[in-house]
Design a protein that fits this description.
- The protein is about 25% helix and about 25% strand.
- Strand 33 (about 585-590), helix 14 (about 595-605) and strand 34 form a beta-alpha-beta unit.
C-alpha cells in the first residue's frame, strides 16, 4: 500500500466544522429517534419529550403523621391546665359513609369520590396513619405522641389534648408535590434517580427517551493481542484502546460494541467497517490513521464514503481521520459481505440515492491520543445525539511550576497535576508521550495550549480543565522533587486510611524540588543531593537554594544505589570505572537529579570525563524509567536503586549507600495538612512495607533536624 500523507493539518475548529457540515447534510446532527422504556431502565437516559403529570401527588388530602384527624376549629382553647376531650368515632360512625375498624389501619386506603356526608358529633377524632386520606370533615392531624387516651362518661373511648392546632396541621394537601397537567420534566433532561420517583409519583410507568447511540469499535493491527493471551513476546502489544474507548462511550450514554482485532490488511479492515456500518450510528476505527505504510484508515474511508479530514492540528491525536461511510438500500439488504463490498465498488461509478450515512472516526493507536480523541470528537457527537450540550469540565486557575514548551503549529492538550499550596494553585506538567496512558491516570486535568503560542513560561497563569473534583485537589499534599518508590507506597497508605487523601508527586529531580519549595509550589521535596566537596547529603544545597528558611529535614530511608544490568550481568560490571568501557552503553538521569549528582561525584573522584561515557546524555526522569531502558535493551546499564532493578527482574551491582530525605518548610511541617503523612513514618505497618523492599534501610525513619538556612 502506498504511504498516505496527511491531507491537511487543519485547526481543530475547522475539522469540527467540516465534520458537522457533513452530518447536517445527512440529517444526523440532531437527536436520535425516541423510544419508550420502563422507569426501572431509564436512569441516566435523556427525555425525548416533556413529561406532564397524569395525577396529582398526593391525589387526596393525606395525613402527614400517625395520629388523629380532627377539625382544627374544635381544638381552639386547648392548653395546659385546660385539656379538651374528643370522642373517637366507632366503626360505621366516621362520617364518610365507609365501613372499617376504629383502629389505625396498616396501609393507606383508596379515596372514594367525594360526596357530602353527615358531620360527626363535635368534638370528635378519627385515627389515621401516615399517608391515609383524611375523612371529608377533617382538616388537621394531631400527632399520636401529643394525645392522652381517656374514657368518656358514656363508656366510649376518647382522647384529650392540651394544645390547639391550626388548619392543615400535619396534612399533605392534594397536589402538594405536583398537580395533574403540571410539567414534571422538560425534554432533553438527563434522568436522575429522584426524577424516576417524580415520574412514578405523577402516574407514569414508562418514559420516552432518546435511543442510545450504537458505537462500533474496531481495533486494527497485526501486532495486537488480547489481554487474556498472557504476557506478549517482544513485538506484540496488548490491545486495550478498545476497552478504554468502550468505557468512554458507555459513560457518555452510548452502547459500545467491541469488535475483534483486525489485522493490518486493507480488505480485512474494509470488510470489518462494512459489517459494522448497517447496525451502528458511529464507527471508531482504532490505529491505522497515521502516515505509515500500513495505515489503511484513510484509504478505507475513501473507498466507502467521504474522507473529510486526515490530520488535525492537535497533540496528542494529530493523525485523526474524520469521514462517512455511505450505503444504499441495496447494500444494506446484502447479507454476504463479499457481495456487499462488490456492490459498493460498483456504486462508485454511478450515482444512487443514499439511504444511510454512518460517521466514522479514525482514532490514533497511541493510548493517550486515543483517549483524548474520544474526549475531543466522540463525546460531543454522542451528546448531540442525546439532546445534550458537550461536557464542560470544571476549571481552575493556577500557575505553572515549570516551563511548558509546545509545538508551534499544534493546539496541545497537556496533562498536568494540580495542588493547592498556601493560597495558590500549582500546576505541574507530567509526561507528554502519546503512549503513556498512566499520564492520564495521574493527571488532575488538561491545560490547553493554543496553536502558535510555543507554550508558557514557568509561573505563567493557566486554566486547567479538571478531571477531578476541585475539593480533592484542595486537600492534596504536593511533593515535587526526586523520585522514590517509598513515595508511591506512601500515596497508597494515605489514600486507604484517610478517605482518599492524595499525595501528588512530580518527579523532576532533587534540585528542581528545592527550587519548587522556594517558589511556594510544593509542601515538601524528596532529596538526596550529595555535596561533591564534603560528601554530605542535602544540607549545603538547602542553605544555597533556601537561604533564610526554617526547614524540617526529615529522614525517610537509606537506600542502595548501583548498576542496574540485564539478568546474569552479561558484561560483568563491578564498579564505577566500568562506565567508560567502550562496550557499555549507559542511560543517565536528568540534570539536577540526585542520582546524576552521585554519578558525577564518583566519576570525578576517578578523574573520568563524562564525555567518555557512552549514553551519558541520554536522560530519564525516574529509577523505573532507567530500569525499563535496560530491560528493553536500549541500554546496557543505568544507575538506580535496587528496588527498581528488582521490579523489572534485572540484576543489581551495589555501588553506594545514600540518604533520601524529605525537605519540608517548617510552616508545612507543623500544619494539619501534613500530619497524616508524618504520622505514617511511625506507623508499624508502613515501616514494615518499606523495609520489605530490597535495598531499603528504615533506621532513623521520621527523625527530624530543624535547619535555619
Amino acid at each position: 500500500m502506498e504511504r498516505k500523507f496527511y491531507l491537511e493539518d487543519i485547526p481543530l475548529d475547522e475539522a469540527w466544522a467540516a465534520f458537522r457540515a457533513a452530518l447536517e447534510a445527512a440529517g444526523q446532527w440532531q437527536p436520535l429517534e425516541a423510544e419508550t422504556v420502563p422507569l426501572g431502565q431509564a436512569n441516566g437516559r435523556v427525555t425525548a419529550a416533556a413529561v406532564w403529570a397524569r395525577l396529582s401527588s398526593p391525589h387526596y388530602h393525606a395525613a402527614a403523621m400517625d395520629g388523629y384527624a380532627v377539625r382544627a376549629a374544635d381544638t381552639v382553647g386547648a392548653r395546659e391546665g385546660a385539656a379538651l376531650t374528643f370522642a373517637l368515632l366507632e366503626a360505621g360512625e366516621r362520617g364518610s359513609g365507609g365501613e372499617g375498624e376504629p383502629k389505625i389501619a396498616s396501609a393507606p386506603v383508596p379515596v372514594p369520590p367525594f360526596s357530602p356526608a353527615p358531620l360527626p358529633p363535635s368534638p370528635t377524632a378519627q385515627p389515621v396513619n401516615t399517608g391515609q386520606p383524611l375523612p371529608p370533615w377533617a382538616n388537621a392531624v394531631i400527632m399520636i405522641e401529643h394525645v392522652q387516651p381517656v374514657a368518656l362518661p358514656d363508656g366510649r373511648s376518647g382522647i384529650s389534648i392540651r394544645a390547639a392546632v391550626p388548619p392543615w396541621h400535619h396534612v399533605r394537601p392534594m397536589g402538594e408535590d405536583m398537580v395533574a397537567t403540571e410539567l414534571v420534566l422538560p425534554a432533553n433532561h438527563r434522568l436522575r434517580p429522584v426524577d424516576l420517583g417524580a415520574l412514578a409519583g405523577s402516574g407514569h410507568a414508562t418514559v420516552s427517551v432518546y435511543r442510545r447511540p450504537r458505537v462500533a469499535i474496531i481495533p486494527t493491527g497485526s501486532e495486537l493481542v488480547t489481554v487474556d493471551a498472557g504476557e506478549p513476546p517482544p513485538g506484540r502489544i496488548i490491545e486495550y484502546n478498545s476497552l478504554v474507548l468502550a468505557a468512554q462511550v458507555e459513560s457518555w450514554g452510548g452502547l459500545a460494541t467491541r469488535r475483534p482485532i483486525t489485522p493490518d490488511d486493507f480488505a480485512a479492515i474494509r470488510a470489518a467497517v462494512l459489517a459494522a456500518a448497517p447496525d451502528h450510528d458511529l464507527i471508531l476505527l482504532n490505529a491505522g490513521s497515521s502516515a505509515g505504510s500500513e495505515d489503511y484508515t484513510a484509504h478505507v474511508v475513501e473507498s466507502l464514503g467521504r474522507l473529510l479530514v486526515h490530520g488535525v492540528a492537535v497533540r496528542p491525536g494529530h493523525p485523526v481521520v474524520l469521514g462517512t461511510v455511505e450505503m444504499t438500500n441495496d447494500e444494506l439488504r446484502m447479507t454476504n459481505e463479499e457481495e456487499r463490498a462488490e456492490l459498493v465498488v460498483r456504486r462508485r461509478t454511478r450515482r444512487n440515492p443514499l439511504s444511510r450515512v454512518t460517521p466514522i472516526i479514525g482514532i490514533p493507536g497511541y493510548p493517550v491520543s486515543a483517549a483524548l480523541t474520544g474526549e475531543i470528537f466522540v463525546e460531543p457527537l454522542l451528546a448531540q445525539w442525546q439532546g445534550q450540550r458537550p461536557h464542560q469540565p470544571a476549571t481552575l486557575e493556577g500557575n505553572l511550576t515549570r516551563k511548558l514548551v509546545s509545538p508551534t503549529g499544534d493546539e496541545e492538550f497537556a496533562r498536568v497535576v494540580v495542588g493547592r499550596v498556601g493560597d495558590r494553585n500549582t500546576v505541574t506538567p507530567i509526561s507528554r508521550g502519546a503512549g503513556v496512558i498512566t499520564s492520564l491516570v495521574r493527571a488532575d486535568g488538561i491545560v490547553r495550549v493554543p496553536r502558535f503560542s510555543e507554550g508558557h513560561d514557568a509561573g505563567a497563569p493557566v486554566t486547567v480543565h479538571l478531571y477531578r473534583d476541585p475539593r480533592d485537589i484542595a486537600r492534596a499534599i504536593v511533593a515535587i522533587g526526586s523520585h522514590d518508590l517509598t513515595l508511591d507506597l506512601m500515596a497508597q497508605f494515605l489514600a486507604a486510611r484517610h478517605d482518599g487523601l492524595r499525595l501528588v508527586s512530580a518527579n523532576v529531580g532533587s534540585l528542581s524540588g528545592l527550587v519548587a519549595l522556594r517558589r511556594g509550589e510544593a509542601h515538601l521535596a524528596g532529596s538526596h543531593l550529595l555535596d561533591l566537596e564534603t560528601g554530605e547529603y542535602n544540607l549545603s544545597y538547602i542553605r544555597r537554594y533556601l537561604p533564610g528558611w526554617e526547614i524540617a529535614l526529615v529522614s525517610l530511608v537509606g537506600r542502595e544505589q548501583g548498576w542496574m544490568v540485564s539478568p546474569g550481568n552479561p558484561l560483568g560490571l563491578t564498579g564505577w570505572a566500568d562506565a567508560t568501557r567502550p562496550d557499555v552503553s549507559l542511560v543517565n538521569r536528568q540534570r539536577g537529579a540526585g542520582t546524576r549528582v552521585l554519578l558525577d561525584y564518583e566519576l570525578g573522584k576517578l578523574g573520568i570525563d563524562p564525555a567518555a561515557v557512552r549514553g551519558y546524555e541520554r536522560e530519564e526522569y525516574t529509577h523505573l524509567a532507567v530500569a525499563a531502558a535496560v530491560a528493553s535493551g536500549a541500554a546496557d546499564a543505568g544507575l538506580g536503586i535496587r528496588a527498581a532493578a528488582r521490579a523489572l527482574h534485572l540484576d543489581f551491582v551495589p555501588l553506594a549507600r545514600e540518604a533520601y530525605e524529605l525537605v519540608i518548610p517548617r510552616a508545612h511541617y507543623e500544619s494539619e495538612r501534613l500530619r497524616p503523612l508524618l504520622d505514617l513514618l511511625a506507623d508499624a505497618e508502613f515501616r514494615a512495607a518499606v523495609a520489605a523492599m530490597p535495598g531499603y534501610d528504615i533506621t532513623g525513619m521520621g527523625d527530624m533536624r530543624l535547619i535555619v538556612a
